[in-house]
Specification:
9 strands; six-stranded parallel β-sheet; binds 2'-O-acetyl adenosine-5-diphosphoribose
Length: about 250
Amino acid sequence: MSGGSFSDTAIERLRGGRVLALTGAGVSAESGLATFRGPDGLWEGHDPATLATPEAFARDPKTVWKFYAARREAAAGASPNPGHRALAVLETELGDRFLLATQNVDGLHERAGSRRIVRLHGSIWRIRCTRCGDEYEELDLRASARCPCGGRRRPGVVWFGEPLPADAFDRAAEAASRADLVLVAGTSSIVYPAAGLPEIARRAGAWTVEINPQPTALSERVDERIAAPSGAALPALVEAAALGAS
Ligand code: OAD
């Protein structure tokens, strides 16, 4: 599928301005990872409230742990796709003019090389003990659900009803308010506060572009829509701006 045709405004602002990219589960779809909503989505047939809330974990920790263990296994077996890699190229080319804010917890942006990244919803590769608070990076798929202190371990992701990690939203909102261009890729734009970032940026004068094969809750409020998969559109953008060639 074609990567769509970006406007001159988007390309100019990418070349010379401050850029915020906001991503969601859709950018990992072409890596074979399920999104949350829609047919075959992770929430299809599940009420997120039974899997992704502190109450669900308190009630049935084994089921919640198993759900996230399966997602860790799927993510470990997946590889970054051209969309992830294009965002890493943008970071290399733009330096401190660029920030990536992601709702994704799968680690694929990091594996593609992104470092200027704000993880709004945490990471499945971080584990935290609910009793002693010990938190660490855990790449072992057979990680024990029990801490040596006897407490239960939980994934380091943000669940519904929980606050975002300290500073994460502030950092993303600050970048949104200073951005000249915002690229919103692979998100249904219905989970707040992340979904509010493009509006913050737009009010402050940014040009907003949505990259998503399907229309979303945001579609009517962006300046430009690219109806294409991010794995095609983001590399096409890098190429159109003549970045990443050297
Ligand atoms: P969703 O599953 O809600 O939305 C995924 C979006 O990706 C949809 O709009 C799809 O049309 C789009 N999409 C699918 N394939 C794509 C592709 N190849 N390229 C570009 N877009 C594509 O996922 P999120 O918006 O990330 O939160 O969901 C937001 C939050 O809701 C998640 O972080 C998670 C979930 O509940 C928590 O768990 C707290």
